[in-house]
Amino acid sequence: MDDELDLPAYLDLAAAEGLHVLLRPGPYICAEWEGGGLPSWLLAEPDLRLRTRDPRYLSAVDDYFARLLTPLQPYLSTRGGPILAIQVENEYGAYGDDTAYLEHLAHSLRRCGVDVPLFTCDQPADLARGALPGILATANFGSRSAQSLATLRAHQPTGPLLSTEFWIGWFDRWGSHHVVRDADQAAQELDELLATGASLNLYMFHGGTNFGFTNGANDKHTYRPTVTSYDYDAPLDEAGDPTEKFTAFRKVIAKYATVPDEPVPAPAAKLAVPAVALTQSAGLLENAESLGEAVESRHPLTMEELRQDFGFVLYETTLPAAGPVLLELEHVRDRAQVFLDGQPVGVLERENHEHAIAFTVPRENSVLSVLVENQGRVNYGVGIHDRKGLLGEVLLNGSELAGWTSRPLPLTSLEGLPFAATRTVTIGPAFHRGTFEVAEAADTFLHLDGWTKGNAWINGFALGRYWSRGPQRSLYVPAPVLREGANEIIVLELHASHHARTVDFKQTPDLGPTEE
């Protein structure tokens, strides 16, 4: 099992530290995670309906529960383990009101040997839609605790009061500001909640990272992708170091419970490596064949039809004649870079509701290439049915443009790229490679000042996305990714590369400006 996916090891660690666990297996988790945690292959069937009693969906859920929960039975509290209770779905009341669907999930959990209490969680206004009779209902909120708990008590006259998600920060999206919440104000909200005698689960206590391509997105009439960092302005930051909010919360909690009589650990050592030169390059379009196998079809195929989870799809076709044209792409999911004979002619972004671009074709049989990036599947609301790539019609001067190749570029391995030394400024998309030395591995932050948009890898580990539009301007690099001696960095730049093609590793992050 991959280390970062080793749930039993996590539960062993919790038990060793004397912690209890509220297990929240979904299958839908939201969490600003790609697709809300639901696997993309579910969307390969065009009419499948997620989070419903669609038999195909329920069959997949039942199989998932059986595979996940059967090995976890020794970790249930009824067997001496740390798992006190297990959640049924997640904030379902914000999505639907099918009690029979929730009942199916509860029965499926029981069939897998779960004999600890079950619970649901919803925002206060959605309790009536998302609760399940006979199952403990809990509430998610971040302020107005007395009012929220009163709503919970009105819905559920007896039983414990629990805020399963007590929001003490928030997440960021590309093109906005870095969201922070004043530590003293958040501590006051915490104090007000604890004074009621209710229980709570801090969301988030420890900030995290949407490594690789795992960030989600929101779409409330406008698509908004989440950034790589999930620092969340949490008491423990993205690197696990205590913040001002940690100290403020510790003081409040000490009023209601015993806290350890020992000093708070100091922030861990950080690494700095300035001006790492990326001296080798490999173009993406020129080397696409080494990154994925093209599939021929009349229409462009979606990522899901290609059985692809993350990354990019490169669509190509030839244009019949020279002259001015209007290219119309009905649905771009999510960002399309358009090239003609390898030269960039424009970008279309779902976020800006763009779907058409005009340009002049220089010659008959010019090659049209459209590189489409999946910027994160929607993780909340009906938008979770978020198929990626080019969807719907493609028109050229009003007529169907048919006869395409669709090439999946998941970028799970970059080993086949023919990197070569170059000193010239590259008009992307291109991969840039460099090496740097580390005497002793430690956490650090990759800064990409002067770069435009793309992805970064350290020793083959996908750190995440960067984008000059911000707010985030650095990527967290955990110490285990590094090794003593030589280390490799690869940066995929989708546009023009930095004229100097250098990056910096610094001891502090840059998550962007906050709202004034």
Automatic annotation (TrEMBL):
It comes from the Bacteria. The keyword Ribosomal protein does not apply. Keywords: Glycosidase, Hydrolase. The keyword Hydrolase applies. Pfam families: BetaGal_ABD_1 (PF21317), BetaGal_gal-bd (PF21467), Glyco_hydro_35 (PF01301). Residues 4-255 form the Glycoside hydrolase 35 catalytic domain. Residues 429-487 form the Beta-galactosidase galactose-binding domain. PROSITE patterns: GLYCOSYL_HYDROL_F35. Residues 300-409 form the Beta-galactosidase 1-like first all-beta domain. InterPro entries: B-gal_1-like, BetaGal1-like_ABD1, BetaGal_gal-bd, Galactose-bd-like_sf, GH, Gly_Hdrlase_35_cat, Glyco_hydro_35_CS, Glycoside_Hdrlase_35. Belongs to the glycosyl hydrolase 35 family. This is Beta-galactosidase. It comes from Nonomuraea recticatena.
